Amino acid sequence: METSDVAVIGSGAMGAGIAQVAATAGHRVSLVDSIPEAAEDAVDRLASNLERLVTTGRLAADEADAVRGRLRPAGSVHDLPECGLVIEAVPEDLALKRKVFGDLGASQPTTTLLATNTSSIDISAIAEAVIQPERVLGLHFFNPPPVMALVEVVHGLRTSGAVLDAAFDLMRAWGKTPVRCASTPGFIVNRVARPFYGEAQRMAESGVADPATIDWILREKGGFPMGPFELTDFIGQDVNLAVGTSVWEQTEHDERYAPTEFQRRLVASGKLGRKSGEGVYPYAADGVPVGRDPDLGLAEQLVGGPIETDPLARTVAMLVNEAVDLVARGDASAEDVDVAMVLGTRYPKGPIAWGREIGFDMVAGQIAELDRAFPGGRYRPSPALTDGSVS
Ligand SMILES: NC(=O)c1ccc[n+]([C@@H]2O[C@H](COP(=O)([O-])OP(=O)(O)OC[C@H]3O[C@@H](n4cnc5c(N)ncnc54)[C@H](O)[C@@H]3O)[C@@H](O)[C@H]2O)c1
Fold it and tell me: Which of 153, 182, 211 corresponds to the end of one domain?
């Protein structure tokens, strides 16, 4: 980077966290928000976070002071110093992001890297607002940025290789684990994870098993840190539905990502998960789910049985299929897909490694069997499972 100054636009949950990461890595960081007090409040909030790290012995007091000293609120995009990197983290709205990028393109030197933290918008569509689109890329941090190591470094159609390399190296220098990805709907993590939710919802809906039993199987037999229903209750059913719907819409309504009636009903009835007191499960006042009792006899019967009614094998086969397809399209490398899924979702294994273990031929057979049981295009084995292009 030409200069080491960094700016973050949008001081909400993600922007403030990214600012903390950049300041901790030694950069002077300007934080901008459309609500002026919001940037000031964010800097105060970050100061308290740093203070907490000091009192719990995780950060030296002089280091916390130094990090705090590098953070400053700025009035607007036009008040920023010349920066080496600007990261935008305003709400997920293309017109809003384009306006921010247009302003940044006009006010920052042509050498400044311009990054967006978007979760779902096409990088190329945002880059159109800038005269030099080759310097626009995605830096997709995970929540909370100071804790989550993964950053998806996302390239649009016109992003230059030099910009990507510089951003990739910088993320490494910030102590993150960057992976490279094309600007494909959902990038790596939000794309490959879709079947983890969708298969469980379909199985519950068709009466294969109740959510508590499916959650138990994925957690206890599969090694996933949370089952799909408890996880979507935790994320928010509305948030999870919005991500899934966005991927579905951006893939021209590909059946593989079609939202389920199960989840739509939950959201329509206000059962959003923990935050609303009820989602798939009702929650007690202390946030503990109520009535989450698995049917262990049924679980033992389902696991290892026919693929249509085996929640674990069916989910894993679809995760492998999705991951292999992403790699075969050239959107990311097999290694990066596995790193991203393990760090971004805490899956017990990367889906490509899992596929190798099961055997890609075997997975192709499982998906073909699901396709015979449920025709309509959702269960399409990726050609790459059998043509040797991913091994
Ligand atoms: N929350 C997550 O888990 C998460 C994870 C990864 C990526 N993201 C993405 O990060 C971005 C921000 O998400 P968030 O959760 O931090 O949102 P947020 O609503 O918490 O924060 C957005 C901030 O941007 C400010 N803002 C609005 N318009 C602005 C403008 N024109 N200029 C400057 N500031 C403006 C708002 O006042 C607000 O403080 C979104 O694109 C989102 O998709 C979110």
Answer: 182
